[in-house]
Amino acid sequence: MRMTATIRRAVFPAAGLGTRFLPATKAQPKEMLVLVDKPVIQYGVEEAVQSGVPNIVIVTGRGKNAIEDHFDVAVELESFLQQRGKDALLEQIRKITEPINVAYVRQGEPLGLGHAVLATRNLIGDEPFAVILGDDVIDASPPALRQMIEVYERVRGPVLAVERVAAEEVSSYGIVATDDREDLGRRVHRVKDLVEKPPLDRAPSNLAIIGRYILTPDIFGALEATARDRTGEIQLTDGLRRLLRERPIYVYEIDGVRHDTGNKLGFLKAIVYFALRRPDLAEPFRRYLESLDLKIGVNT
Ligand code: G1P
After folding, report:
1. Class of the 9-291 domain?
2. pLDDT digits (tens, 9 = 90+) for 239-254
């Protein structure tokens, strides 16, 4: 492996069907669902850019054209805004596309996260890269991916973001057991084992993999050799487990606030959270929230 210091590319798997948000996602990619006024995927892309990773690889599939349009220059819209003198909006629109280079890979069939990562092999080549799962929107300073790159530059091996989760959530995540004999510094641990979505009684801990990874190119060979799971999917966690036989893998507990926007409750919480951080909305929105009768039930 080349010893480059920098992570140059961030992969965004975005070929999933988004069934949890039907009917909203019948004709619209789930990545384009909006938190306040920005599509969910844009939060992740901005995080990559702010982390010094402007090369974006989006793994798409059928029905995902809106993502490509969103990250493409909108010539007509820009000239309309220019003619009307709407400079602030124009700047916002340009800021979406100007700092990034985007490439798209089609996944064909959505056969799991490991399969999505494998689809980027030719584009990524022989260098380390990041994977960002857009569902996990992380408010952090420095940005979550930046924090991870700093860890990668120290340990020179795969780094997975993790967070402690409640017992009832353990079976929804990749779960990691750590070996803490070596002192790797605050928030960094070496992985002893990892298992995809274990039942609670078989989970080695409550340390869950969240949607940020820094991977090395040897993950591709490991994924190729990884068997499909019971549902026919190739899991990234299973590929990493295989890779662990060959090299050390690390986890890092992100310093920030993570929102899992991939489920309805998490999505609603994220909207409230980000709205309260917006200077133009925070005060009236807070007043509205405070005025709510929170005892309203579904049948009242
Ligand atoms: C995926 C991974 C899982 C990880 C999770 C983080 O699962 O397979 O290991 O913990 O993302 O969000 P998904 O949420 O796509 O089912």
Report:
1. alpha beta
2. 999 999 999 999 999 9
